Every structure is written in C-alpha cells, then in structure tokens.
Amino acid sequence: MLALHWLCAAALIVALGAGLRRLSRPGPRASRARIVLARYATQPSAVIALGALLVLYILSALAPWLATHDPIEILAQTLVNHPPSRELLFGTDFAGRDVFSRVLYGTRISLTIALLATFLSVVMGIAYGATAGFVGGRLDTVMMRLVDAFLSIPRIVLLIAIGTLWAPLSITSLIVLLGLTAWFGTSRLVRAEVLSLKEREMVAAARALGARDLAIVRRHVLPNLLSPVIVAATLGVAGVIVNEAALSYLGIGIPDPTPSLGNIIHDGTPYLATAWWVALFPGIVLVVTSLACNLAGDGLRDAMDPRQVDR
C-alpha cells in the first residue's frame, strides 16, 4: 500500500511537470502570463528549484499516506537512535521515533506556517504601503519612519523577544508572530510602486471621470502591484521557513512532540557524534527548501521584468 502511495505521488509530480512544460510554449498570440512562464522555463536553476518545491509540497501534503509510522509514536526502547535501515529510512531519534515520518510531517507544518505567515505579511504590507503612498504628505512620512524604526531592529531578535514573552506558542500564534514581523519590507516596496503608479495617465483619467480614491486604488493601483508583490512574497517564504526553524530550534516555536524541521534538528544536535542522521536529514530538507524558494523567486523576478518580457 505504501508503494502505491509513493507511485501516485510520483505520477502527480510528473503530470504537473508535463503541464508546466506545455504551458511554457507560447504561441504567436500568447498572453502575458504564458510569455512570463516561457521566460521562466528558459532558466534551468529556476525550473529545478520550482520542481523541488513542487516535490516538497506534494510529499508533505501526502504525509499521512507516505509516512511509515506515527510521527510522535515511540516505537520501542531498543530502537532508540537506531541508524537508517530498510524499515526505518532515516533512522530513529533519542526517543525511538521514526525520523522519516517526523521529517515528512515537520516539512508539512513548516511549509504551511510559511505560506500562511507570508500571506498575512503580504496583506499587511499592501494595505500599509498603499495607504502611505497614495495618501502621501505627513501621514506618509510618519508611517514610513515607523517602518524604518522596525527595520532597524534585527528581525530574529524581535522574534525571540516577542516569542519569549508570548510563550508557549501555538501554530496559530507562530503564524501571526511571523506574519506581523515580515511586512515591513513589503510595505516599502508597495509604497514606492504606488508613488509611481498614482502619477500615471490612467489615474489622472480616472480622477477626471470622477472616480473616488478607493475605486482608483482597487481598479488601477492594486492590479499593477501584483508582479513585484508576488516576487517579494516568493522570496519571503524562504525567510519565514528559516526563522520558524530557528525559533523551534531555540525552543520558542513549535513545542515537542509536534514535529517541525527546527525542533527535529534540535533533538538531534546533542547526538551528532553517535546519531548524525537525526539532524542531517531535516537539515538537508531545510537547506533545499530555502534555497529552492530563493532560486524560484529570482527566476520569477527575471521572468516578470517588463523590460525582458516586452522584448
């Protein structure tokens, strides 16, 4: 049955890859989206990174079917720090729990937290930056100085301070904490774009026709913010994943026995000399995930560059 689940996961990955390849071939009247996708497909590193992310998301989504054991189940006292084997692919940890199953579920939790926290930060950044840029004047000055003050504080220090005061953190609390400390850069980006967009002819024409400010922002400003915001969000996912892992490693984030990549690495750190596999495999997944997010974001930024697309 487990082999069938893995076969289905592999078939789904192949199907998605074939679909992306087909969409990446623009015709003579291709839409802008297909042109961007075609440009993205010409970047091998970005395509490989996107493929790695798809594999990670699909495997983590199928964790209940692909896991060989319950991630918090203690198998047996004789299987404590058991090395990788055919039955235990990634071995076991100090408590006798299956590391492979914990990595699958930990990746699922870490990716879920990263996506939801990034979505929250993007919404906050768009609302804050669009307000500051469109209204302008003293309000813009005050709002941006507040953002500068927050940006002057190292984010990890801010997360540790708030997380320590807020402990113990649930998954929902961790999502809110990571999301509310990640929107500062997005707000500056959105403000800069809004300052440029509100001086264009389309906004002047809308004002001449009697459109209200809220309607102008909704119909003309926000749609033109999608490209830079999507790129910023893609790059921001990697930062959220690393920060969540750091908090969990320090014991502030996801509490044991619930698995996350950070606390799995933390569990294996004291046993690096005798049970290296406990920290190695989640560490590899963490590095691959963050690197893939950064490479995919860089490729998306190049593909969505209007100067490149319009050539």
Question: What is the secondary structure topology, with strand pairs?
Answer:
Elements lengths: L1 H22 L8 H10 L2 H18 L1 H4 L32 H37 L1 H15 L3 H12 L4 H10 L3 H14 L3 H8 L4 H9 L4 H24 L11 H8 L8 H27 L2 H4 L2
Helix pairs in contact: 1-3, 2-14, 3-5, 3-14, 5-6, 5-8, 5-9, 5-12, 5-14, 6-9, 7-8, 10-11, 12-13, 12-14, 13-14
| Percentage beta strand | under 5%
Biggest beta sheet summary: none
Number of helices, where a helix is a run of at least 4 consecutive DSSP H or I residues: 15
Poorly predicted regions are none
The CATH superfamily is known as: MetI-like
Question: Cα-atom Rg, whole angstroms?
Answer: 23 Å
What is the end-to-end distance? 51 Å
Helix content: over 70%
Rounded mean pLDDT score: 82
Q: What number of structural domains do the residues give?
A: 1
Element order, helices and strands?
Answer: HHHHHHHHHHHHHHH
What is the CATH class designation? Mainly Alpha
The global form is elongated
- Write down how many β-strands occur, each being a DSSP E stretch of 2 or more residues: 0
CATH architecture: Orthogonal Bundle
Predict the CATH topology: MetI-like fold
Structural class: mainly alpha
